[in-house]
């Protein structure tokens, strides 16, 4: 904690990251790790507006909202460094992956009512178990497994997509998650060395920013693929010449 600054939230009860606590404000423990979630909220809001405006399926609206809930949970966690807020960050991470699993696999699922029921019960059971047991490394392993389960389907969507702009979204998704993971590992593994540097590169904050873009690229790519499945003639348009979003043309009967 910075000298002379008292803590609004009390003693730290959660995992800490490689940023000095309460340097800029007594209300925000890890300042950069907190504000670095703002781009993720704004990007999720942009995606939500596009999903509403073009009347995409409700699953995508829920997905964008879940991204916003996750980033807000992360802000509260890094601002307070409290155990309860840490669980409020980690549990939505699992819920979000279950949503991705549903969006990826539900189009070919023969018993469609069973998947959302199972995923809902699974998510609720995890939330209760995590609140009771406080998983540590088990949470990270569990989350990594959920991510890996989505990879085969994402790859299938990629190889069956011929649109160059859509493929570019998938490549941006991979680039941001790879770079973000390196930042996360660097911050976590070399914190003792970084703490002696004059300048802290804030690897975990960079992870937040990159993962905000990562979620946006993933969501936009999945919206394109789903619109293609439904025959909505999707195309990747660019706002102001560089910011990608999906534009569709539904048949008049829809």
UniProtKB/TrEMBL annotation:
GO terms for biological process: autophagy; ceramide metabolic process; defense response to other organism; response to salt stress. Keywords: Calcium, Hydrolase, Membrane, Metal-binding, Transmembrane, Transmembrane helix, Zinc. Pfam families: Ceramidase (PF05875). InterPro entries: ACER (IPR008901), ACER_plant (IPR044219). Its cofactor is Zn(2+). It is a multi-pass membrane protein. It is found in: Membrane. GO terms for cellular component: membrane. Zn(2+) binds at residues 78, 204, 208. GO terms for molecular function: hydrolase activity, acting on carbon-nitrogen (but not peptide) bonds, in linear amides; metal ion binding. Ca(2+) binds at residues 17, 19, 21, 30. The chain crosses the membrane at residues 31-49, 61-81, 117-135, 172-190, 205-225. Belongs to the alkaline ceramidase family. PANTHER family: ALKALINE CERAMIDASE, ALKALINE PHYTOCERAMIDASE FAMILY PROTEIN, EXPRESSED. This is Alkaline ceramidase.
